Structure formats: structure tokens, C-alpha cells
TrEMBL record:
It comes from the Bacteria. CDD domains: cupin_KdgF. It comes from Thalassococcus lentus. This is Cupin domain-containing protein. Residues 33-87 form the Cupin type-2 domain. It holds the Pfam family Cupin_2.
Length: 103
């Protein structure tokens, strides 16, 4: 169990850091309702996303893709990305280097 707090990141969306190191961070994003939004954003970190549960419509660098349990993908540095929840669930994101703004 993580000692990090659960933080609201938007309506019906939370994040919790699961583990971190200066070179790597693992974060759970939980989407509690259909239609919840992971707002479009970008950052200098490389991000990998694993869909633990639920279904999501992701837009990465202008390209849309629907993903579900077991799917994973990488978002390269500074690429704009975001998602809409189609079925409630959890995304597990890894960032390198870690997202110090999440601490």
C-alpha cells in the first residue's frame, strides 16, 4: 500500500503515487465515472501507460485510440495527450524521470 496521499485531479479523477525514485515514478489514476476527463497536457517526462481496468479514449499528439484492460502505450516527451473515460477504471502510469510536481 502506498504511503502517498490520494489527490483529486479533476471531477471523478484521482491520482496516487505508488512508488518513486529520482529516475522513475509509478502513479495510479482512478477514473470513477464514465465521461471523466484526463485533461490534455504535456510534460518533458517519458510516460508509459498501462490500462489496469476500464476503457478510455486517448488522444496522443492528435491521434485517437480506444484502449482497455491489458493495453499499454508510451507517450514521448512533450507530446500533448489526454483521455476520456468510457468505462470507470484505473490507469497505471510510469514516468521517467519522476514527476517532482506530484510529490
Amino acid at each position: 500500500m502506498s504511503d502517498f496521499p490520494i489527490v483529486s485531479t479533476g471531477e471523478h479523477v484521482t491520482r496516487q503515487v505508488l512508488s518513486d525514485h529520482p529516475e522513475l515514478m509509478v502513479v495510479a489514476f482512478r477514473f470513477e465515472e464514465k465521461g471523466a476527463i484526463g485533461a490534455p497536457h504535456n510534460h518533458p517526462h517519458v510516460q508509459s501507460t498501462y490500462v489496469h481496468s476500464g476503457r478510455f479514449l486517448f488522444t496522443v499528439d492528435g491521434v485517437e485510440q480506444e484502449v482497455g484492460p491489458g493495453d499499454s502505450f508510451v507517450v514521448h516527451s512533450d507530446k500533448t495527450h489526454g483521455c476520456v473515460c468510457l468505462e470507470p477504471g484505473t490507469l497505471i502510469d510510469c514516468f521517467t524521470p519522476r514527476r517532482d510536481d506530484f510529490l
